[in-house]
Amino acid sequence: MSKYDIIVLGSGPGGYVTAIRASQLGFKTAIVEKENLGGVCLNWGCIPTKALLKSAQVFEYLKHAEDYGLKVKEAEHDFDAVVKRSRGVAEGMSKGVQFLMKKNKIDVINGYGTLKPGKKVDVDGTEYSADHIIIATGARSRELPSLPQDGKKVIGYREAMTLPEQPKKMIVVGSGAIGVEFAYFYNSMGTEVTIVEYLPNIVPVEDEDVSKQLERSFKKSGINIMTSAEVTKVDTSGDGVKATVKTAKGEEVLEADIILSAVGIKTNIENIGLEDVGIVVDRDKILVNSFYQTNIPGYYAIGDVTPGQALAHVASAEGILCVEKIAGQHVEALDYGNIPGCTYATPEIASVGLTEKQAKEKGYEVKIGKFPFSASGKASAGGNKDGFVKVIFDAKYGEWLGCHMIGAGVTDMIAEAVVARKLETTGHEVLKAVHPHPTMSEAVMEAVAAAYDEVIHI
Question: Where are the beta strands (DSSP E) in 262-304?
Fold first, then answer.
């Protein structure tokens, strides 16, 4: 039986990052993976979807070339080539993880791993033992009873990335990050898209101003949006699919070629031996303490299988903290109130901290600042004037409570707010930090100035 200091179960952005940090700290480390290194994120999620979205964005630029004083005879797209490029990007990233495993002398064990008592892992009949076992098995597309996925007419995000042909009509059920990103992609490619969202606003976890702006931008792009709506029945017996949608006005039947179910995720915790080991689970989440220890000594869990936000960067951060704690380092528990969230449609969305509604519900007296990209020189020059930066400060102490952005490139801007909040920066300190002009990022400074009645450019 092979013996390790640490075995990591799963090689997504939680698992492989954890394994690398463990190796850096001097632990003899192995990682178990049943499919491809990089997990869902690199192979079927974060990375290949961004490749699809970039193709859509370039195609949109081509279609609007005249807006930039350029002439293109006719913009055309090759759907198969777009998908092929996306797969190529994913394969390249997965090979990059293979290289990182070799570089860091991490043993890769290919196969399906199950936990055993006594700090052991069984991989397709072969047992391995370790002083510490870290569960990082991630999650998959969640299915609703009224919307069972058949992989052909009712699909999840995985099938949406590799459809053999582009559908003429698509219904997207759910308007979180996955739903709106695919809605944007397929709409840009020429598919007629309808979003069905159960809650009153699309991207419902975002600040309401952001939700309303995205709805305006999407409708302008030709995406149909139904909020406060629920798919109650699906008929796949014909050539396409018929969805019965319940709204406040009654029932409506929508017809399409394909329905994309984007109603969240389900953790991969079945059949991995949790019951055999005695690890406590609450619904579909493994319960852990602040340093990701389960109730059974020697067993840990990070990423989507735990109660924190199901985001790649959260899984990576949790894994690093977990192994640093195992190594005896002094580490602080992760601040889940300062985790940025990003959505990569056009316009992009990025946010961190409290929404305006949440801040007021918590009893804060707030200062709100908002700067529209329509007043930004860089946004005007780039032809991307939709959106804004919105900031929320505690009026009493100047604490930066929240930052919410929608517009071109904002996912690359949100880190300023994350770092500033981590350092407990006040609004006045942000104002005195000179921002370069012309940039999209100066909209952050302008929004802060607006909160303190010092804004210059609006």
Answer: 265-267, 281-282, 285-286, 299-301
Q: At 2, is the secondary structure helix, strand, or coil?
A: strand
10, 112 Cβ separation under 8 angstroms: no
Distance CA 397, CA 425 (A): 11
Q: Hey, what are 399's tokens?
A: 């604490």
Task: Convert the pLDDT of each residue in 204-219 to its tens digit.
Answer: 999 999 999 999 999 9
CB 395, CB 366: distance < 8 Å: yes
Could you tell me which residues are beta bridge partners of residue 404?
Answer: 351, 390
What is the percent of the chain with per-residue pLDDT over 90, rounded to a whole number? Answer: 94
Burial of residue 103, with CB atoms counted within 10 A of its CB: 0-12 exposed, 13-18 middle, 19 or more buried: exposed
Q: Which residues are catalytic?
A: 437
Sign of CA dihedral 344, 349, 354, 360: negative
Mention every residue, 6+ apart, whose C-beta is less than 8 A from residue 404: 206, 207, 209, 210, 350, 351, 355, 389, 390, 391, 392
Residue-wise pLDDT for 228-286, tens only, equals 999 999 999 989 999 999 998 999 999 999 999 999 899 999 999 999 999 999 989 99
Handedness of CA 450, 452, 456, 458 (dihedral sign): positive
Closest alpha carbon to 273 in 296, 254, 249, 307: 296
